[in-house]
């Protein structure tokens, strides 16, 4: 008998198209296509089967990230999640470059442009190179027994009649979306909502309509019939357990269910947005909705900018990705113009709704301030406040640096940070640029109170930042700030270090729960759990909530680091080069997440060398040799220095001796402090 091609399974599959042990599609009598390292035939990797229609199966992963099937560590030309390969159930071989910086080559041709994802078809003897066309070479080997892409495959799909209906206590009048009021299990047939059923006081028994014909509901249970031929009368049950969780239990061992593409082994606890599918029945899908786990969000969280259009949906190419199965892959487009938002619906089966009214596909509706728009069951409100509106009031100032000079000095005795003045308003999103060694990290250390001042003052929310080293050692002080925010004396400021610090065997949700138990230990357990669920949405990792940390991509790990610090809802968050080691696409995703935080009242200061986020910042700081030589709107940085590229600004201060750079920095800082821009943003606020 053939074996399952999933290396983690390898059980005999008989003549079935889908392995009953793990759900992986397996063509009958299939030989396994291989990826073989050129010049080293001992390095052979099975190319697994993945069915894009049902989402079953797995892909072969290539990259530097731990847990990759082909782990190319130590090669700086390889991205953390570089590429994936898979075979369709019909035997068609596909490679996808995940947007790597240095590219993937198939038969000598590059698959995609830097930072852009693209696919290529493979065949027997195709050569593949990762990161460099002359290195990391592999060859595709397809045994002669392998079915070709044109070989017909027996159809295992269970069809659902066009006039099929549900039976039992199902609400057939349910419509999408009902925002925060829509609860329970939504039953979709051919991607159309057929009804809703809610497990409250009684358990729900799901089974086939024909098998349940004439069946009396067991005591304390409701019976719902699904139009699936051959499905037993009691296939699975959903009920609210004693601990408050909604639990799915498989009643019949022959029934193969998956939750979010993960096979159910006996039972599974359901959370908001979980998608339940039955193997071999792609036309049927159940989605569990739990409104208490959601809230009405601000539309400004999606990082709208005046005049620019962004796409909302689940697909990776969408600028605003919403990880909920009731959201279509490309759901709608949004465009902010003159204080109003134009909403154009893209989804056929589940159009966007503006103030409760569906927007027909291809048509546009206007959303005014105070109005609401629904994408699936996710609801967003268009706030009155413009994202670029200045705060203006003294109470809205988060951080003041008044003539700050550090006690840490260079070998020549010159302070690393010298005479820096700065005023940062609440809700700011600012990037700190400057050459290596110019004092950026030391400036952050001064703001945190981890490094003593030689002169000047640092005020956070109007309070002087005091050093803690009189009571704690420096190591313990930094450890407390790193893991719990910044210690018990100040919960308004947190630091996200450059390197992630996580227990790699925990899942994303478990990691947040662990940090919440430490930093919110006086809170009731239910409140801590609610904060964890909110944070999963804030960092856009709900779709990865049950994934182990070791299997996250680099950008996802960094977003998790941000999430552990957001649990306490700080006023100010500092990030030290969070994009280090990330490719361009991943960096863009991370910046999008960070850009949404100021909309919720969190000020973000970020050290970076990456030119990509420059225009995403509202304000930019530029330091040279310990002096602040520019602070203002990001669009004004390049014109101020008379350049068109960020790299050219750096070049102005290169190829000089240390003494020359300091002299140039002093002149540049003095010149900047005489400008109207400095007077407006800093001088007048300091008085």
Give an account of the 3D structure.
The protein has 687 residues and is an alpha+beta fold. 16% of the residues lie in helices and 30% in strands. The protein has 10 helices and 44 strands. The protein has a 6-stranded antiparallel β-sheet, with no helix packed on it. A 6-stranded antiparallel β-sheet has the order 15-14-24-23-20-21, with no helix packed on it. A hairpin with a 2-residue loop joins strand 23 and strand 24. Helix 5 packs parallel to helix 6. The radius of gyration is 28 Å and the shape is globular. The termini are far apart.
Nearest-integer average pLDDT: 79
What order do the strands of the largest sheet run in, or round the barrel if closed? Answer: 2-1-13-12-9-10
What's the number of extended β-strand segments? 44
Question: What low-confidence regions span 5 or more consecutive residues with pLDDT below 50?
Answer: 26-30, 145-155, 385-395, 467-490
Strand content: 25-35%
Tell me the span between the first and last alpha carbons.
83 Å
Radius of gyration: 28 Å
Q: What's the shape?
A: globular
Which oligomerization state do the chains in this entry correspond to? single chain
Question: How many H/I helices?
Answer: 10
Fraction in helix: 10-25%
User: Main beta sheet, described?
Assistant: 6 strands, antiparallel
Secondary-structure-derived class: alpha+beta
């Amino acid at each position: 008998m053939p074996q399952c091609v999933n290396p983690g399974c390898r059980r005999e599959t008989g003549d079935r198209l889908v392995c009953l042990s793990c759900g992986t599609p397996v063509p009958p009598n299939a030989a396994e296509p291989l990826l073989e390292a050129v010049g080293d035939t001992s390095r052979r990797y099975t190319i697994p089967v993945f069915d894009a229609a049902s989402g079953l199966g797995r892909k072969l992963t290539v990259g530097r990230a731990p847990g990759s099937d082909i782990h190319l560590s130590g090669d700086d030309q390889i991205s953390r999640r570089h590429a994936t390969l898979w075979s369709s159930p019909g035997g068609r071989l596909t490679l996808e470059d995940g947007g790597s910086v240095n590219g993937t080559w198939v038969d000598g041709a590059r698959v995609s442009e830097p930072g852009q994802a693209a696919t290529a078809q493979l065949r027997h003897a195709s050569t593949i190179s990762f990161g460099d066309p002359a290195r990391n070479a592999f060859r595709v080997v397809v045994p002669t027994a392998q079915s070709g892409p044109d070989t017909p495959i027996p159809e295992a799909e269970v069809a659902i009649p066009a006039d099929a209906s549900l039976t039992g206590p199902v609400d057939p009048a349910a419509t999408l979306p009902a925002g925060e009021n829509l609860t329970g299990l939504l039953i979709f047939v051919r991607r159309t909502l057929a009804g809703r059923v809610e497990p409250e006081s009684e358990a729900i028994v799901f089974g086939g309509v024909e098998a349940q014909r004439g069946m009396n509901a067991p005591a304390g249970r409701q019976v719902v019939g699904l139009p699936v031929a051959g499905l037993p009368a009691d296939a699975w049950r959903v009920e609210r357990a004693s601990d408050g969780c909604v639990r799915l239990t498989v009643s019949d061992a022959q029934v193969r269910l998956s939750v979010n593409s993960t096979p159910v082994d006996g039972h599974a606890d359901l959370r908001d947005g979980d998608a339940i599918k039955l193997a071999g029945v792609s036309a049927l899908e159940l989605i569990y909705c739990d409104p208490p786990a959601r809230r009405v969000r601000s539309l400004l969280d999606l990082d709208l900018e005046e005049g620019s259009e962004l796409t909302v949906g689940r697909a990776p190419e969408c600028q605003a990705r919403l990880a909920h199965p009731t959201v279509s892959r490309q759901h709608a487009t949004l465009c902010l113009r003159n204080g109003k938002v134009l909403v154009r619906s893209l989804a056929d089966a589940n159009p966007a709704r503006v103030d409760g009214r569906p927007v027909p596909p291809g048509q546009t509706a206007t959303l005014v301030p105070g109005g609401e728009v629904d994408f699936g069951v996710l609801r967003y409100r268009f706030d009155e406040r413009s994202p670029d509106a200045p705060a203006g009031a003294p109470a809205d100032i988060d951080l003041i640096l008044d003539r700050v000079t550090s006690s840490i000095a260079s070998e020549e005795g010159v302070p690393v940070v010298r005479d820096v003045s700065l005023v940062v308003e609440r809700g700011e999103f600012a990037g700190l640029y400057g050459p290596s060694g110019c004092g950026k990290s030391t400036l952050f250390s001064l703001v945190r109170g981890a490094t003593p001042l030689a002169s000047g003052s640092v005020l956070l929310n109007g309070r002087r930042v005091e050093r803690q080293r009189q009571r704690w050692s420096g190591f313990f002080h930094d450890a407390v700030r790193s893991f719990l925010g910044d210690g018990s004396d100040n919960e308004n400021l947190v630091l996200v270090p450059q390197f992630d610090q996580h227990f790699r065997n925990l899942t994303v949700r478990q990691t947040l729960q662990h940090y919440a138990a430490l930093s919110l230990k006086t809170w009731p357990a239910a409140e801590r759990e609610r904060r964890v669920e909110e944070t999963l949405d804030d960092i856009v990792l709900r779709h990865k909530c049950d994934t182990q940390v070791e299997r996250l991509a680099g950008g996802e790990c960094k977003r998790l680091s941000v999430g552990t610090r957001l649990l306490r809802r700080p006023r100010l968050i500092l990030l030290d080069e969070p994009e280090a080691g990330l490719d361009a696409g991943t960096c863009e995703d991370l910046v999008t997440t960070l850009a949404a935080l100021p909309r919720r009242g969190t000020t973000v200061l970020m050290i970076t060398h990456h030119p990509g986020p420059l225009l995403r910042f509202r304000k930019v700081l530029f330091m040279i040799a310990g002096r602040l030589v520019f602070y203002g709107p990001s669009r004004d940085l390049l014109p101020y220095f008379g350049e068109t590229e960020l790299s050219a600004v750096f070049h102005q201060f290169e190829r000089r001796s240390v003494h020359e750079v300091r002299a140039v920095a002093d002149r540049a800082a003095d010149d900047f402090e005489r400008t109207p821009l400095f007077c407006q943003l800093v001088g007048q606020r300091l008085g």
